[in-house]
Design a protein that fits this description.
The complex is a heterodimer of chains A (300) and B (306). Chain A has 300 residues and is mainly alpha-helical. Chain A has a single domain, classed as MetI-like (MetI-like fold). Chain A contains 12 helices and no strands. The radius of gyration of chain A is 23 Å and the shape is elongated. The N terminus of chain A is likely disordered. With 306 residues, chain B is mainly α. Chain B has 13 helices and no strands. The longest helix of chain B has 35 residues. Chain B has a domain of 202 residues: Orthogonal Bundle (MetI-like fold), CATH 1.10.3720.10. The chains are: A mainly alpha (300), B mainly alpha (306). At the A-B interface, helix 5, helix 6, helix 10, helix 11 and helix 12 of A face helix 1, helix 6, helix 7, helix 11 and helix 12 of B. Chain A: InterPro entries: ABC_transport_permease, BP-dependent_transpt_permease, MetI-like, MetI-like_sf, OppC_N. Chain A: Belongs to the binding-protein-dependent transport system permease family. OppBC subfamily. Chain A: It is a multi-pass membrane protein.
């Protein structure tokens, strides 16, 4: 280990900042725990994650097995959410659909976080031409209504959930890039960064070890909120036939097929919609709570 | 002011160029051979070649882009592969429905969102504030297409009050505008509340109250007026969300608008139409945001156009 590395390590463990950030996290957690709405959101999300992970065991029926004898039946003891046009159990389909929606939301936002934080950090840290170029490109992406941009990307890549994730990732990049740029700018001239620079830390070292960890908090808050948007957008794309293809039990696609039976069997559309709302509400409440815990004045 | 307008107009040009580049590349981002994709899997080699030539895909990229832009400047968005009519005509035939829907949704959003927000902000942390904010949390979590279906179920099927689809008259737009606007009104309500709360505790508001100004005047003239900038900004941004959301709403309510046209074009792989309509909508969105920027001065005279 070189001397610089040693010095840098020392810097991290002994700097006032390290203590400050640790207690800041503690304060954040305690503020979050006191916020009832945030805790409800947190448990709603935990519930959905558990359902998604345990789907094969908790779903009472096979989500794609058809049984024409019981098609379009309303809610009953055997089928609490009723059955769809192929006699499939809607509850089981919703349970399995949780996996798809969560996965799409999380992977989509992860793509956006990785690209957005990378671009935003380069932009904010180096400034100059790179900054201008990156931000102008982001502006162009933002000139498109976001749902339309996602739709355009999927129309090019072709329908399918993987492409939906890519589309959601791309259309969320500018939001993350802007936020991470502004939080990088707010810390890049701080003394502890100057100190690492003075000790000869490379740009890459400073960015990875100091700039990103110290500018990530708002990104986490935004992620939680964007997962909510991503889930609704993905369901919307599937509703239009651009996402999951039959017989995949995707909520938006289920809702779309239910449209044809709205008059005779409204539960086919109602139930998946309620599921979407539950999960999205959970993420929105969680995001609100994280924002308030982190910085009540933050505008996100 | 005039210099500012000119400056902002000039700033819009690079954005529009960027938008045109992005939509131009849309067709080139198609995996594999776009001509083959458009012609369909059963098309013969000659047919594919014909499509390629027809769309100019056999020429170098810069030639294609140059031609694309020079056509754009002449108002030529190409010819629809599906109907073989000019894309611009197709768009113009459908745009009135979409803009009617969007503007009505904006009205829903402003009326409900603004008043709910003001109502909440003037009674902070009361039961009614908590309920309003909880309802608006539900509102932002609602998928617009699901809300649309539920409105059809309630108002068309059960109560028989309003038509469930089509675009023949004003009454046909009520449910779609509600479905589209409600979610945005929830966003606006939250923002109005937080924006007003920031102002309501300031000295000038206290002074106004102290000198005995009526509460209504304090709220609307002193507080709301000073909280308007973020509100106006979000209305402009939501315009884009609503234009995008119109795709879903038009599908749910079978409105023959631009959104449905885009979906039909995607299903038909009618790339000139997809390109043209997306470019058109983005241009409208850019112009609306420009107008919002220009409104800042009207809303808040302290904003200096420099």
């Amino acid at each position: 280990m070189s001397q610089i590395d040693l010095a840098l390590q020392q810097d991290e463990s002994t700097s006032e900042h390290a203590y400050a950030s640790r207690s800041q996290w503690k304060m954040m957690v305690s503020r979050f725990k006191k916020n009832k709405r945030a805790m409800v959101g947190f448990w709603m999300v935990v519930f959905c994650v558990a359902v998604a992970l345990l789907a094969p065991w908790v779903a009472p029926y096979d989500p794609i097995e058809q049984n024409m004898q019981i098609m379009l039946e309303g809610p009953s003891l055997n089928h609490p959410f009723g059955t769809d046009e192929f006699g499939r159990d809607i509850l089981s389909r919703i349970i399995h659909g949780t996996q798809i929606s969560l996965m799409t939301g999380i992977v989509g936002v992860l793509i956006a976080v990785i690209l957005g934080v990378a671009l935003g950090t380069i932009s904010g840290y180096f400034g100059g031409l790179a900054d201008t170029l990156i931000m102008r490109i982001m502006d162009i992406f933002m000139a498109f209504p976001s749902f339309l941009l996602a739709l355009a990307i999927v129309s090019v890549l072709g329908p399918g959930m993987i492409n939906v994730m890519i589309a959601i990732g791309i259309f969320s990049v500018p939001t993350f890039a802007r936020l991470s740029r502004s939080s990088v700018i707010s810390i890049k001239d701080k003394e502890y960064i100057e100190a690492v620079k003075a000790m000869g830390g490379s740009h890459l070292h400073i960015i990875i070890k100091h700039v990103i960890p110290n500018s990530i908090a708002p990104i986490i808050v935004l992620s939680s909120m964007r997962i909510a948007t991503a889930i609704i957008t993905a369901a919307g794309l599937s509703f239009l036939g651009m996402g999951a293809q039959p017989p995949t039990p995707e909520w938006g696609a289920m809702l779309s097929t239910g449209r044809e039976y709205l008059r005779v069997a409204p539960h086919v559309s109602t139930m998946p919609g309620l599921a979407i709302m539950f999960l999205v509400l959970g993420f929105n409440m969680l995001g609100d709570g994280l924002r308030d815990a982190l910085d009540p004045k933050m505008k996100l | 002011m005039f210099a500012y307008i000119v400056k902002r107009l000039l700033q819009v040009i690079p954005t529009l160029i960027g938008v045109s580049i992005l939509t131009f590349f849309l067709i080139h981002a198609v995996p594999g051979d776009p001509a083959r994709m458009i012609a369909g899997p059963e098309a013969s080699a000659e047919e594919v070649a014909e499509v390629r030539e027809h769309l100019g895909l056999d020429q170098p990229l810069y030639v294609q882009y140059g031609k694309y832009v020079s056509n754009l400047l002449k108002g030529d968005l190409g010819v629809s592969l599906r109907s073989e009519r000019p894309v611009l005509d197709e768009i113009m035939g459908r745009f009135p429905s979409t803009i009617t829907l969007t503007v009505m949704a904006i009205a829903v959003m402003v009326v409900i969102g603004l008043f709910a927000g003001i109502f909440s902000a003037t009674r902070p942390n009361s039961l009614i504030d908590n309920v309003t904010m909880m309802v608006s949390l539900f509102g932002i979590s609602l998928p617009v297409f699901w809300l649309g279906l539920m409105l059809i179920l309630l108002f068309s099927y059960y109560l028989n009050l309003l038509p469930s689809g089509g675009n023949d008259g004003f009454s046909h737009f009520i449910l779609p505008a509600l479905a589209l606007g409600l979610s945005s009104s929830a966003i606006l309500a939250r923002l109005t509340r937080s924006s007003m709360l920031e102002v309501i505790n300031q000295d000038f508001v206290r002074t106004a109250r102290a000198k005995g100004v009526k509460e209504k005047l304090v709220v609307y003239k002193h507080t709301l007026k000073n909280a308007l900038i973020p509100i106006v900004t979000i209305i402009g941004l939501e315009f884009g969300t609503l234009l995008g959301g119109a795709v879903l709403t038009e599908t749910v309510f079978s409105i023959n608008g631009l959104g449905r046209f885009i979906i039909q074009s995607i299903q038909f792989r009618d790339y000139p139409s997809i390109q043209g309509s997306i470019l058109f909508v983005a241009a409208i969105f850019v112009i609306v945001n420009l107008l919002v920027d220009l409104c800042y001065g009207l809303v808040d005279p302290r904003v200096k156009y420099e």
